[in-house]
Write a structure and sequence with these properties.
Elements (H helix, E strand, L loop, with lengths): L1 E6 L2 E4 L4 E9 L3 E10 L6 E6 L5 E3 L7 E6 L4 E6 L8 E10 L5 E5 L3 E6 L1
Length: 120
């Protein structure tokens, strides 16, 4: 069993910053890609950013230049530094990880989400 637990969400004014964290725990052999997705009210879940096990990031166009994804492999943790926040960044942010529970078996896991609200 693997758990992903997010933290760091909250209420922030436009232009401010927040840092999200997501720690993976449980029966982990290794973790491949990790990432952040978000879902705004009435909208589909969308990719925000992902990062490979080697540290290569990928960003949605809407956050590139404002958000930075990073990870600490020793802690099985991924971070999302969000700067210059906009009201349209308001959403529930979900952590995702491709977790190998053995050398030959892995699957995607999701956190329960953390709410980020940006006021204008």
């Amino acid at each position: 069993q693997v758990q992903l637990v997010e933290s760091g969400g909250g209420l922030m004014q436009a232009g401010g910053s927040l840092r999200l964290s997501c720690a993976a725990s449980g029966s982990i052999f290794s973790i491949n890609a990790m990432g952040w997705y978000r879902q705004a009210p009435g909208k589909q879940r969308e990719l925000v950013a992902t990062i490979t096990s080697g540290g290569s990031p990928n960003y949605a166009d809407s956050v590139r230049g404002r958000f930075t994804i990073s990870r600490d492999n020793a802690k099985n943790t991924v971070y999302l530094q969000m700067n210059s926040l906009k009201p349209e960044d308001t959403a529930v942010y979900y952590c995702n990880a491709e977790v190998m529970t053995s050398r030959y078996y892995g699957m995607d896991y999701w956190g329960k989400g953390t709410l980020v609200t940006v006021s204008s």
